[in-house]
Amino acid sequence: MIEVQSIDKSFAGQRVLRELGFEIPDGRITALLGANGAGKTTCLRIVTGLLRADAGRVLLGGRDVAADPLAARRQLGVVGDREGLYERLTVEEYLTLFARMQGLAGAALRQSLDAVREELELGELWKRRTRGFSQGERMKVSLARALVHRPQHLILDEPTRGLDVLAARLLRRTLLRLRAEGTTILFSSHVMSEVAELSDCVLVMADGRIVGNGSPAELMENTGSDNLEDSFVALAYGSAARSECIEGTPA
Amino acid sequence: MMGLGNFSTRRMAALLRKEMLETWRDRRALWMAVCFSLLFPVMIAGSTTFFVKKHAEETTRLALLGAERAPLLEQRLRSDTLKVDALEQGEPRALLAGDYDVVLQLGEDFAGDYRNFRTPQLYLYVDSSSTATGRAERHLQERLGKLQQLVVGQRLVARGVAPQLLAPWKLEVRDVSTPSGRGAMLLAMVPGLLILTLFVASLATSVDTSAGERERLSLETLLLQPMPAWQVIAAKTLAVASMGWLGSLLAIAAMVALMPAMPLAELGIQQATTTAGVITMGLLLLPLALLVAVVQILLALRSQSFKDAQTQLSILQLAPVTVLMALDMSRVELDHPLWQLVPLVGQQQWLKSLLVGDPVSLPLVLAGSAASLLLVAMAVALGARALRRESLLGAL
Questions:
Q1: What's the complex ipTM?
Q2: pTM over 0.80
């Protein structure tokens, strides 16, 4: 379970997150939506422990991320907004490195590597250095790195950005499989169809706060919209913006 | 204070392997390290040869025309540094264009005038367009002056006058330099250049592993692993230091390989650098290699971008030369043992001693190396703090 409890964060006196709070139960996929600058990436970075909240706390599986970051990271997999690959390493070397840094060794290590190679169809890429990989290939390797130690919690920042159809489909399939295995997944996205297809729960952020929280159907019902995009616009920008978008005139 | 909790040798070894692979597969950095490491021994070999050649050129070659008129003059002028060729005849201009620096011609009546205490005429031919002329002319004038003083003294004695009346004092210049000492002066450049090699050879790697990783956002991925930040800095330091250190080892090896081809014997230098000496020099440089690496990483992490890091570290490269030159120019007495505890200065002193075959004090070497390693540990702790800075992740 991921628990975010009243976190505040400011940069250079500018408040980016305001008493932000939500919970994500195990075995659920939660999407984090928000306009650019709404604070999504800051929120995800605080959840992963890369940034410290000015107030409030984040618990991953009951462990305080700020107080015990190393323990929290052992049950966390992250795919950031850039892949973070090492271009002079082969895929095998890259994944072995991260598996070892997560404490895997011996047969367990070999088993994990074989599993991600199979699941993410990395066979052809396995012995190649990552320099020159396509966006889809980079994302697959990055996802494999996040999953190699079988984390309980998976955080993804706009994971399908720049992916072709097949790569995006593989990613969605993987996320659904992980959910079925009980993994807690939080991802940010701007692609509404993807959010509608994948998410059990949607969090809408605006101005550093959660302004909408519920399943896609609940959000549509609450905002009187017939699609998720309209619901998001109404929640993130206000109903005036929604009317403008739908009717073409101010409400 | 740096916490050592959660230390895992296996995790650290995995990270170190990654850093090493990344470092040694970076052809650009490797090429730069190898080129510079080989460049400076070649430079030293070249300058030594030039020095010896210049030293050989310090011998003045004199053509003495009409030497048969004053056989003693020829004998008295000749010395180790003044080579006199007695010629019965010759054309001064042609002789100067040939092998001679200066030509001295005795007048036709030199013998008669000299015997009768008339002032005989000497003609000194020089080619002022030649760079060697000034030195050769001064050299000959000096010799002639001394000889003249001797003749005057003898003539005064023959007339019962004490020659001391004309010489209230006697100045004798004693040059205490030996060829070996002059060679040592030349070899004194080597430690500074070896230390400079450490800085240059590790520069590209240190920028790539810190500012480069930050710009590629792979640093974030690394920081999300369950490892203390100090281990990340320590692994990077070891990888960067390996490049700098092996660069300087390559330079030492090249230097030793080139020594037989260098005219060291003509400078009176015995090749003091043995295999054991090379190994010792390498070991002495190891703590400094670590210190240089971690300082470079710290600076690169503080910089705004990859390019900014390159600029800052390029300036840092000048540090060893500047510090060592400043110490030389300020005439600070470096003989005090405490100086050997100062990183950079200590290593310079030890390398200098080893190169000329002087012993180094083991306790001082151990203490100096420990001082460098202590600074490394402090810098690693600072680096770990730097990794926790939010601005490092581009959060601002």
A1: 0.87
A2: no
